[in-house]
Design brief:
The protein is of the alpha/beta class and about 375 residues long. It has helices spanning about 1-10, 10-35, 55-65, 80-85, 100-105, 120-155, 160-165, 190-220, 220-250, 260-285, 285-300, 315-320, 325-335, 340-379, and strands spanning about 45-50, 70-75, 90-95, 110-115, 175-180. It has 2 domains: about 40-180, 3-Layer(aba) Sandwich (abc type-2 transporter like fold), CATH 3.40.1710.10; about 185-379, no CATH class. A 5-stranded mixed β-sheet has the order 2-1-3-4-5, with helices on both faces. It comes from Bacillus yunxiaonensis.
Length: about 375
């Protein structure tokens, strides 16, 4: 009983309890609000249609643009469409081949090709595969109607019996081929962006908390802060080396050079350290609550589990302000290819500069206030 009383006298006990309760409360509130109405925003997904057939294909393309419940854009060439897909403008490309009408007329069979971007959230990839099957079925119906009308016009003079007979020739005229763009082998690689974002941020959050405790013991605000940045830089470099080693050990193939991956991971971890450190510098121990909120916000808004387009505008904006989005996008580029690693690095560096400036301003204000208090006491 005495031991229990001693526990209850120490503030750390209550901090631990508050953190545990905060995790539950924050994750419930953030995740349930972030994913509320996601299915209703499926119409924000982007699909490109590339029609290379001027006959029946034109009608099919027109039907797709009119009937698909997504943002559908017609592109003139596959090269341009794939370029836009690599820039994450499209989740899928529907290609209508040049021989579409000819194959239907002469062979009775043809194929649509669906190009699905694998450098995307798991939900988006699964959704697009389902859409491909649905499009195939809908196009089959359109082609069947087209064939019936065309043949019926020629056979009308032969009597209604002949017209009825053509209906049996119009089933399943269109097949489909799914081409996975920016693909990577193995199911586990799909989890790499989420895993690295989660591990890096949680590691940074705990490290910033522990360094903050040490900083209070060491004292000396300005030099103290600079010393922490030296430690942060060294650990970021070391962690990047370990990350590359683990990816090699687990045979995760990368589409970028080892140097680029090393630089990127070091910047990602330093960005997370800068953000978590800023909250602790601004709010002290209460900064951990802000870090927990930040963790939850970044997991839901980074585009790893649910694509950005299906989130509300609020969470899309939050995602653009926090480093996890650029970390996830960068790792999609590293693992799957496509995208632009340089743009994500620039965004992360910008976040680092902003968070470092905010932290330094907070330290400066704190230093000035302490100086004023000291003068007042001496007076």
């Amino acid at each position: 009983m005495n031991t229990l009383k001693q526990f209850l006298k120490i503030p750390g006990t209550y901090i631990g309890i508050v953190v545990a309760l905060a995790f539950q409360l924050i994750f419930f509130c953030v995740w349930l609000t972030a994913y509320d109405g996601v299915n209703e925003r499926a119409d924000q997904m982007h699909i490109a249609v590339v029609n290379q057939d001027t006959n029946m294909g034109s009608k099919v393309a027109e039907g797709l643009q009119k009937n698909l419940p997504f943002q559908v854009t017609e592109e003139k060439s596959m090269e341009k469409a794939k370029e836009e897909m690599n820039a994450h403008a499209y989740d899928m490309i529907i290609e209508i081949p040049t021989s579409f009408s000819k194959d239907v007329s002469e062979k009775g069979k043809t194929d649509l090709t669906f190009h699905i971007n694998q450098a995307n959230a798991m939900m988006a990839k699964q959704m697009m595969e389902g859409v491909a099957k649905q499009v195939r079925d809908n196009v089959n119906k359109e082609v069947s109607n087209y064939k019936q009308q065309a043949v019926a016009g020629k056979l009308q003079a032969m009597g209604p019996g002949s017209v009825e007979a053509i209906k049996g020739l119009t089933e399943d005229s269109v097949g489909f081929t799914i081409h996975k763009v920016n693909d990577a082998k193995g199911f586990s690689v799909n989890m790499v962006p989420l895993m690295i974002v989660l591990a890096s941020f949680v590691g940074a959050m705990i490290m910033s908390m522990e360094l903050s405790k040490v900083a209070k013991q060491v004292g000396g605000s300005g030099v103290n802060y600079l010393s922490r940045q030296v430690i942060n830089t060294a650990v970021s470099i070391l962690l990047a080396c370990i990350t590359i080693g683990l990816m090699k050990a687990f045979q995760i193939e990368v589409q970028e050079t080892v140097w680029n991956v090393w630089i990127f991971q070091a910047i990602v971890f330093f960005a997370f350290l800068s953000l978590t450190q800023m909250f602790i510098t601004l709010f002290g121990n209460a900064g951990m609550l802000f870090n927990i909120i930040s963790l939850s916000l970044q997991l839901v808004s980074s585009g790893v589990m649910v694509p950005h387009a299906m989130l509300s505008k609020t969470y899309q904006t939050i995602g653009e302000l926090l480093p996890a989005t650029y970390a996830a996008n960068g790792y999609y580029t590293i693992i799957f290819g496509g995208g632009n690693l340089k743009e994500n690095i620039i965004s992360l560096l910008f976040i680092i500069i902003i968070t470092q400036i905010v932290a330094l301003i907070a330290i400066g204000i704190s230093f000035v206030l302490k100086g004023k208090r000291r003068v007042i006491k001496e007076a």
